[in-house]
Amino acid sequence: MHLEPQLLTLGNEKDEEDAEVIFRVFQALLPFRLTHVSFVNRTAREAVQKIWQEPRLPKSGKKRLKRPLDFPWSPEARDLYFSGDTANKLVLEHMIPISALTERLFSELENNSCESGDVLEFLKQNHSGFVFAIITKDEDKRIANSGFKKKSSDLSNVWLRYKEALGLDSSDFTSVTNDPRFKES
Fold first, then answer.
1. d(CA 185, CA 183)
2. For residue 53, what are the contacts with CB-CB under 8 A and spacing of at least 6?
3. Structural contact between residues 156 and 53, judged by C-beta atoms closer than 8 angstroms
4. Is 88 in a helix, a strand, or coil?
5. Where are the beta strands (DSSP E) in 30-125?
6. Could you say which of 31, 76, 95, 175 has the lowest number of CB atoms within 10 Å?
7. Global pTM?
8. What is the per-residue pLDDT across 25-58, written as a single tens digit (0 to 9) for each?
């Protein structure tokens, strides 16, 4: 499946500025990782989501799309879409768990192998291909119950946990706009 990059650039200057903010947030949180685990993890996650990911999601007009039709959708999610019964049943899911991204960034900061400019490259690298998939809440629960939600830190194979937890591989996912039912409607 070939898609354009899912997250857009906001221009070099804004991308650099946002990466610098994330770098400073992570630096500030680093001393508290062991004493305030929940707070640190939540704050790190929200920094990446709110400062980097959400502003770079595609737009339709002035509105950011919560579930872009050209992102990869699981078969169950597409079935719900075409049935018209999607209310509170779909998840814009991080293909690489955001906890894996934040953990890796913290690790690089702890080892003093990461500087401000490196954060921008890290964010660009980890957000250049498949970042999100649309799955059902039921599928999300099945992934979580399988243990793959937390332990999937293999950043090189974003499809692994869908294969292991749901029995789906990359060829099972397609965009709504590539589904034959979309052309019929």
1. 6
2. 7, 127, 131
3. no
4. coil
5. 59-60, 63-64, 90-94
6. 31
7. 0.80
8. 999 999 999 999 999 999 999 999 999 988 988 7
